[in-house]
TrEMBL record:
Heme binds at residue 371. Belongs to the cytochrome P450 family. This is Cytochrome P450. PROSITE patterns: CYTOCHROME_P450. Pathway: Secondary metabolite biosynthesis. The keyword Iron applies. Keywords: Heme, Iron, Metal-binding, Monooxygenase, Oxidoreductase. Its cofactor is heme. InterPro entries: Cyt_P450, Cyt_P450_CS, Cyt_P450_E_grp-I, Cyt_P450_sf, Cytochrome_P450_monoxygenase. The keyword S-adenosyl-L-methionine does not apply.
Amino acid sequence: MYGIFVCLSPNHISIVHPVALPAVYGHSSGALKAPFYDAFASFKTRNMFNTISRTGHTRKRRIESQIFSQQSVRELEGTTRVHHIDLVSQWDKLYSYVKRAESDGVREGFNYWSFDIIGDLAFGDPFGMILAAKDTARSAKSVNASLATFSTSSNTKKFAFEMEELPVTEIIGQRGELITMLGWLPKYVRPIILMMPGFRSNLQAIPKVAGSAVTAVAKRMNDLDAHADMLNRLLDARDENGEPMSPEELSSEASLIIVAGAITVANTSCAITYYLARDQRVQAKLQAELDDALKADDSIVAPHDAIKHLPYLDAVVNEGLRLDSPAPGSAYLRGENASEFYPERWVEASGDQKKAMLDAFVPFSIGPRACIGCNLASMQLHTVLATLFHRFNVVLESDDPVRSQV
Ligand code: HEM
């Protein structure tokens, strides 16, 4: 609407063109993340996402890239599958659960599922939301006081600090709204905005999310027998001087994994479910592909190997990410039906046209700051959609995207 280049402020230009992607985000671009990302810092120690310095980021990225490699994600599938079985039985219950008038259960169900999986994979302990059918996680009442117990705790690692139960997905939403808005403002304006009454309650969300990360780390460190998980790898990591990550750095990385890993997958799964419910033709076509691929398999959860290369499922996932990416601005497509959910575009295109589409389609970004969790995200999205749409037919109860009936 405004053209390719828009000058948003004297030193801020928005560019909407695929050719700009490698120039800005590519490995050889030399560009650093902007002060926008300072607003995401909720601990004194930065995490991988909001570290601006190249050397600081490279150090973290090197440690964490092993955790999220294709190979590691394949190994995590076992943990995920066990967890999926639980999830599917909850989806069976969801059939009656979503009928409760006060609930918009589909969206909530995806949030609970996604948080439980991240809790399990990252900390060896699901949050227990899906079984409780409740948005709930324990969070340290004071981040500083809880972090202080890490240095005073004995070897038995019994961290004792005051905690509260919080609706963590709701609070992460409030935090996201606030910091995305703050990020766009000059740094000197941010404290003034935060003094305004309307923003104070959302401001509380920042330490609350941080508190839930500290609690997850402490809980994991209390349970020395927990299965090998992502935190294990962070605990084992050493810097060039042989030093482990500090409790604060661990908590900062943990909060990133919770925020980046759970809400993104939940939102995308929910959006795609909505598009499929809205378009019964596409849903039936996907189900036919799944029926064929899974006909020799009677397990509840679709095995990733059986569904990871299905062309129509791939197209459905791509189309969902294109239209409803949790990281907006990551897809660029022009044409008459560009705003329609039309998975066939990914199957029908070929040659230069397909290449141009793929060059412009970067839901996980590109370059050194691209999503490190994309392998995990892709596995979860493919598995959950295949599992659910092989088992259920989903129809819209109304035009409202969040009030659907399974
Ligand atoms: C549909 C799912 C997902 C999408 C669309 C997505 C997208 C993205 C994008 C676009 C970025 C770059 C953002 C920026 O620099 O401003 C990013 C970064 C990141 N994502 Fe994801 N993500 C998803 C799932 C996940 C999962 C499951 C995890 C891990 C459990 C994860 C962990 C991260 C981390 C740690 C970063 C920071 C990387 C760095 O700065 O080096 N993401 N993601």
